[in-house]
Write a structure and sequence with these properties.
The complex is a heterodimer. By secondary structure, chain A is of the alpha/beta class. In chain B, helix 2 packs parallel to helix 3. The chains are: A alpha/beta, B alpha/beta.
């Protein structure tokens, strides 16, 4: 009769434990949610993100406590405002806030998904809003920090069909300073209720107008160094 | 509703046996008949079982038409590299689909068809949705996804011709004790490869949760597709660390070699599992409660923990020799 050869399982297990032990605090085995956002990773990254953006947040009372909402923020080129607005609001509300606009290829798309990014697709946004998520989308990027670009009405359509609030969030940052601002506005309400696709087009236009008004009220970048502020005024 | 006749194709498999054992306890089930190439993995008290090859269409048609079921639960689905290689799985599925669904079309009492499908049906091409729901058009990108898409298409075609309801239970990868699963087998290896550049999240479902979904689908006469996925998600690396396995980070070209080596050590990595590790596999399972009245009880991390909790080998020690 042949005997079974026993592999050194205990030795193998202890070796594996020794090798993976340094990784374990960084990679907890259960921190990814159903949309791929890794809360643990976000918490690790946030102190480093604060080295770049020190965001002060206002108007949080306008955000729904539990329901989903589509938050529209203005975007200056290369400012990554949806990212820092989403993280700042997530910190302030203690609930995951996602943002739209990840590429779908590794490693950037995969990395952005881990920090809360969604595809730039109305169906994807619709799914997230239906599940009560807060989703930040950017306007079309502009070269001037105080101009709000056009709002993609197809993404707004996802909010309209889900029946959640569309809320403008004015954001302000500069390439020369850490100081940034995210001001949540009141939810957009239209006087005329539309049943068809005009609803999202009109809400998108209204969101752009609201954002522009909020940016005008914010009064531009304030770094504390006047010449820099003048330069960033364009 | 009482006294319903149910036919379960694929009753010999782990999932089929589990579904059959749950159906035996249902008061509305009158008689239960099963067909498979393998005998059932559980002791069944009421079910009548026929051992027939999927290619033996005439015998299958004879048994199915003689039984004349009210509900057909079609579980005769071979996941590639679970019990058969991809080419064999494709052939077995094609044979079984033609035979069972064709025979179902000849049954005058038939009211409902419930087929096993998978969330592989949505595919994971570029810009495919992170969490597709049932309204998303199927665009499979793996052989297994194409197989389940064909099953749904054939079932829909038969159902529309004879005027019965057809429901598709789209399962996440099924994991459970004794369930042959290429994903489960791979994760239980001592060294497990994962994509370091992507490491995407995926979801799974426990075998008994999947079985309860089929029973509910038959009881409710499910007439549309439904995703059945465990809540929560886990990435490849997280699953490996949960199991105390050694993660092997891979970037790209070395996957081909790894797949061959993994095949040699008994854990082949089929296309749809490779897709899980590279592109992830999530789905929106929120409609299950509305359509089936049940929802998976075990979360994805719990299912993964259970995967690693099974004993690898049950050792039977030698009996001590009797001393005269």
């Amino acid at each position: 009769m042949a005997d079974l050869i026993q592999l050194p399982r205990r030795a193998a297990a202890s070796t594996i434990n020794a090798v993976t032990a340094p990784l374990r605090p960084l990679l907890p085995p259960n921190s990814v949610d159903e949309w791929g956002r890794d809360d643990h990773l976000v918490r690790i990254i946030q102190p480093f993100a604060r080295l770049r953006w020190d965001v002060s947040v206002g108007g949080l009372q306008h955000l729904p406590a539990r329901k989903g909402a589509l938050l529209i923020t203005n975007e200056r080129r290369l400012s990554f405002s949806p990212l820092y607005v989403a993280w700042a609001l997530s910190n302030a509300t203690d609930r995951p806030v996602r943002f739209v606009g990840r590429p779908d290829h590794a490693p950037f798309g995969a990395a952005l998904r881990r920090v809360g990014a969604l595809l730039d697709d109305p169906t994807e946004v619709h799914g997230a809003l239906r599940h009560g998520e807060l989703v930040v989308m950017g306007t079309a990027a502009t070269s001037h920090p105080r101009y709000a670009g056009a709002v993609d009405h197809e993404l707004v359509g996802a909010a309209v069909t889900t029946g959640v609030a569309v809320i403008p969030v004015a954001s302000m940052s500069t390439a020369f300073s850490r100081t940034a601002r995210a001001e949540v506005g009141v939810p957009i309400r239209m006087r005329t209720k539309r049943r068809g696709p005009l609803a999202e087009i009109e809400i998108a236009e209204a969101a752009q107008r609201h954002l522009q008004r909020m940016l005008d009220e914010l009064g531009g970048v304030q770094t504390g160094v006047a010449p820099i502020d003048w330069l960033t005024e364009g | 509703m009482r006294g319903q006749r149910l036919l379960v194709s694929g009753m010999g498999g782990e999932l089929g046996s589990l579904v059959a054992s749950l159906l035996e306890d249902e008061p509305w089930v009158g008689s239960l008949c099963g067909i498979d190439v393998d005998p059932p993995r559980r002791r069944l008290r009421r079910a009548e079982f026929h051992r027939i090859e999927p290619s033996d269409r005439e015998r299958i048609v004879d048994v199915v038409t003689a039984f004349d079921p009210h509900v057909l639960i079609h579980l005769a689905v071979w996941e590639p590299d679970a019990r058969a290689g991809t080419a064999h799985a494709r052939q077995f599925i094609a044979d079984a689909t033609t035979a069972f669904l064709g025979a179902a079309g000849e049954c005058p009492s038939l009211e409902s068809i419930v087929v096993r499908s998978g969330i592989e049906i949505y595919g994971r091409s570029r810009h495919s949705l992170t969490r597709p729901d049932e309204s998303v058009h199927p665009e499979p990108t793996s052989p297994y996804g194409e197989m389940v898409e064909r099953i749904e298409r054939v079932a829909q075609s038969v159902a529309s011709r004879i005027g019965v309801a057809v429901g598709a239970v789209r399962l996440a990868p099924v994991l459970g004790p004794h369930v042959p699963s290429p994903l489960g087998r791979l994760l239980r290896q001592p060294v497990v490869p994962f994509s370091i550049l992507a490491d995407p999240p995926f979801t799974v479902v426990r075998d008994d949760d999947a079985a309860r979904a089929f029973v509910a689908a038959a009881r409710r006469r499910l007439a549309e597709p439904v995703n059945v996925v465990a809540p929560g998600a886990v990435t490849g690396l997280q699953a490996i660390l949960r199991g105390g396995r050694l993660p092997m980070p891979l970037v790209g070209p070395e996957w081909a070699i790894t797949r061959r080596m993994s095949h040699l050590v008994g854990a082949p990595i089929p296309e749809h599992v490779l897709e899980v590790l590279h592109r992830g596999r999530l789905a929106d399972g929120d409609r299950a409660i509305e359509l089936l009245g049940v929802t998976p009880a075990a979360s994805t991390p719990e299912v993964i923990d259970r995967l690693f909790a099974w004993e690898s080998v049950v050792r039977v020690t030698k009996a001590p020799r009797a001393v005269a």
